[in-house]
Amino acid sequence: MNAFVGYRLILALLPLVNVVTSLEWKNSAVLDNNFLVLWTPGDRDIVFEVQVKTQGYVGLGFTRDDRHVGADMVIGWVDNNGQVHLQDRHVKDSNKDPQMDSSQDYYLLLGYENKTHTVLRFTRSYDTCDPRDLKITNDTMQVVWQYHVEEPVSAAGVLPPHGAVRGSRPLYLVQRDSPPKRTSRNQEVPAVKTWDVLNQQVKLPMEQDTLLWCRVVEMPQLDRKHHVIKYEPVIQPGNQQYLHHMTLYECRGKEYDLEEAAASNGTVCYQPDHPSLLCTSIAATWNLGSEGFNYPPEAGYALDPDSGPRYYMLETHYTNPLLDNFITDSSGLRLVYTNQLRTHDAGILSVGIDPNWRHIIPPGQREVVSEGHCVTDCTGQTIPESGVNMFAVIMHTHQLGRKVRLRQIRAGEELPPIASDTNYDPNYQEYRRLQRPAKVYPGDHLVAECTYSSESRQTITLGGLTTREESCLVSALYYPRIELSLCYSLPSLPTVLQSLGIQKLKQGATPVIIEAPADLAGMTLEERLMRYNWETSFQSFQEATHRGTFKPLCWNRKGELLPNTDVQEAHYPRILRPYKETMMPCAKKTPRNKLSRLFGEDGDLPAPVDPDSDEANAVERGQLVRSKVSRSSEGPVAGSSGVTRAPVVLVLAIIVAAFR
Ligand SMILES: *[C@@H]1O[C@H](CO)[C@@H](O)[C@H](O)[C@H]1NC(C)=O
Ligand SMILES: *[C@@H]1O[C@H](CO)[C@@H](O)[C@H](O)[C@H]1NC(C)=O
Ligand SMILES: *[C@@H]1O[C@H](CO)[C@@H](O)[C@H](O)[C@H]1NC(C)=O
User: Fold this and answer.
1) Where is the signal peptide, in residue numbers (predicted)?
2) Do residues 472 and 370 touch, judged by C-beta distance below 8 A?
3) Does one domain contain both 470 and 371?
4) Does an H or E element contain 10, and which?
């Protein structure tokens, strides 16, 4: 019996079960040119589909770092009899096949193969309770993939020895922006215009593998305020491989400097001999793996000729590891804007440490924690009584960053963090869309907390803008827009001195000379920084920086310090009720009676298949019907329903196999 008849059988059975309604995927990512992954996060489970241009086996997996070892993998294929195989495995040794898990926690929903592709749809829980599997969380996940032109020769799944194509990439799987749902077909689409902020034939250097290129541009001539409702990358065909990230910053500062910068095609960023422009607030950012960003329907980013910034800087990070010659690039970002204004202006609030040498990261440490504060006075003066709603957050450190959190303290109580990533990857910066907006009220104290690993460094790292220096910033998109723009802090000089064991500096000396304690007297501050024994004194350094005072720096959108916040020293907020993370006990799902699940519970009757529908035609053309997991038009998809349906398709597969 050929597979074709099998398809007909499935089709015949479909009306019995609730699997044929259209499925709209929430997220997708092209992992390599042959590998597309689509997924929809539900309440407790995520449904995935991989569409891979091969007729061999395919594999998708998850790790915390970009090595394959330790990866939690699912391997699947469609064999010559049309039977679909899906195996939950893990990578123990990079030279060996991923090993089979004793607990199989990925559930096949559907699988087929056409002339070119293998398609597998499956679901798993965020936390499968199997130590061999990786929990899927809000943290940055490294997604690994693998595929081969051949499939395993037996159902046991010994993989072909050589020739697998592999790759990995960091991705947010859960807190991810996605295009707005089309609610109805004839919904009015606002007339939009586009502003392309593009590079002008940037020549990649032939002797360097990275280039950070900065170009200042003036916003388009507009007669009144418009709203940017989304942005997306514009990538010069063929150049995707050279692009690492592109970020558009709002610029403040002297009109003349900005005008002059905008007249050129750009320069290498952050050169010491160039005047540094004050372009720090992120307006838009793209990173490998991202498709852009969509503002929520209630808010847009204002392009306002009267009050907004008029100049922007596009920073493009190019990589050219193979030193390919004669590469030029004109990629950039496209901002889509409209004059049909949305209810709210979205704003960007950055919380963090002012980029300054007083932000000190000792060398050779596994974990160094730095904190930037947005104090009560600053939120109190600027946030309306009704609060603001943060809907997306982007974290920013340079190469040493490993964990980042945006903490929120209200009247002595620490609330759950607005955003948190314990697996932060400094090379992957993208807005994470919060599933529910976080409310921030006047008087809230926010802390951007960055944890660095400086084990790779032999010398001290200081705060600053260049990539060798460090940074700790969390920028949040929110609405309605307020005056506060950058809400930073800077460790006070007494804090810095105390953390270095210095009691007193000599008045008015240049370079700065230490007076007390006696054993350091006469030493310059710089020498102290260089010679400090971090090995023995790291703990006391860390405590002094954590407990010490800091200078709040709250800037409004015009780049002025807010009045009455210009105090020299502020203190760490008192936290009377600390936040305790509740660890949910792991509850393993016991597969209940599959048939009762199949026909019981959510027994909404499926629509019969229309013989002229795409599905039916697909079968006629010899492709397999793509049975669809149902979803309601609103609310989370799949979730428990995805799981109830997992056994459904298994049962189908069994029935089909029995008929062969
Ligand atoms: C096979 O399926 C894939 C994934 O759905 C699709 O992109 C491709 O066009 C199909 N190929 C053929 C020959 O039908
Ligand atoms: C992600 O964060 C949100 C808000 O903090 C939380 O409700 C949700 O459970 C988290 N999701 C996962 C998969 O951890
Ligand atoms: C910018 O680049 C374009 C395209 O390469 C070139 O025609 C133009 O002369 C350049 N302008 C400046 C100011 O260098």
Assistant:
1) 1-22
2) yes
3) yes
4) helix 3-13
Angle formed by the axes of helices 3-13 and 640-659, to 10°? 130
Same domain (yes/no): 468, 521: no
Ligand 1 pocket test target in 51, 53, 116 with most atoms within 8 Å of CB:
116
For residue 201, give the ligand 3 atom closest to its CA.
5
The CATH number assigned to the domain holding 59 equals 2.60.40.1210
How far is the centre of ligand 1, averaged over its atoms, from the C-alpha of 8 (Å)?
Answer: 19
378: how many CB neighbours lie within 10 A of its CB?
A: 32
Atom of ligand 1 nearest to the CA of 36: 4
Residue-number span of the structural domain to which 561 is assigned: 192-489+555-571
CATH of the domain at 381: 2.60.120.230
Instruction: Using the atom order of ligand 2, give the atom closest to the CA of residue 416.
Output: 5
Q: What are phi and psi of 619, to 5 degrees?
A: -65, -40
The number of folded domains in the chain is: 3
Helices assigned H by DSSP within 485-634: 493-499, 525-531, 534-547, 594-599, 614-620
Residue 537 included in any domain: yes
Rounded-to-5 percentages of helix, strand, coil across the chain? 15, 35, 50
Mean pLDDT to the nearest integer, 165-185: 83
- Do residues 238 and 361 share a domain? yes
- Give me the phi and psi of 649, to 5 degrees please: -70, -35
The pTM score is: 0.80
Write the CB contacts of 43 (distance below 8 Å, at least 6 apart in sequence). Answer: 636, 639, 640
Nearest ligand to the C-alpha of residue 260? Answer: 3
Atom of ligand 2 nearest to the CA of 175: 1
- 571: nearest Cα among 491, 642, 501, 478: 491
214 contact partners, CB below 8 Å, separation of at least 6: 266, 267, 268, 269, 270, 279, 313, 314, 315, 316
484 within ligand 2 shell (Cβ under 6 A): no
Amino acid symbol at 509: A
Determine the residue type at 89: R
pLDDT, one tens digit per residue, over 47-76 is 999 999 999 999 999 998 867 677 899 999
pLDDT band for position 589 (cuts 50, 70, 90): low
Could you tell me if 598 and 645 are in contact, meaning their C-beta atoms sit under 8 angstroms apart? Answer: no
Contact 146, 59 (CB under 8 A): yes
- Pair 62, 157 in one domain: yes
> What is the token pair recorded at 308?
């907004």
**CA dihedral sign, ordered 424, 68, 137, 50:** positive
Chain CA centroid to CA 430, Å = 4
Residue 344, beta-bridge partner list = 299
Ligand 2: distance of its center to the CA of 277 in Å? 37
User: What single-letter DSSP state applies at residue 463?
Assistant: B
Backbone angles phi, psi at 220, to 5 degrees: -65, 155
Residues 190-230 pLDDT 10s: 789 999 999 999 999 988 888 999 999 999 999 999 999 99
Residues with Cβ within 8 Å of 501's Cβ and at least 6 positions away in sequence, in order, are 517, 520, 532, 537, 540
Q: Residue 200 Cα, ligand 3 centroid: separation in angstroms?
A: 7
**Which residue minimizes the CA distance to atom 5 of ligand 1?**
51
Q: Is 137 in the pocket of ligand 2 (CB under 6 A)?
A: yes
Q: Where are the alpha helices (DSSP H) in 432-516?
A: 493-499
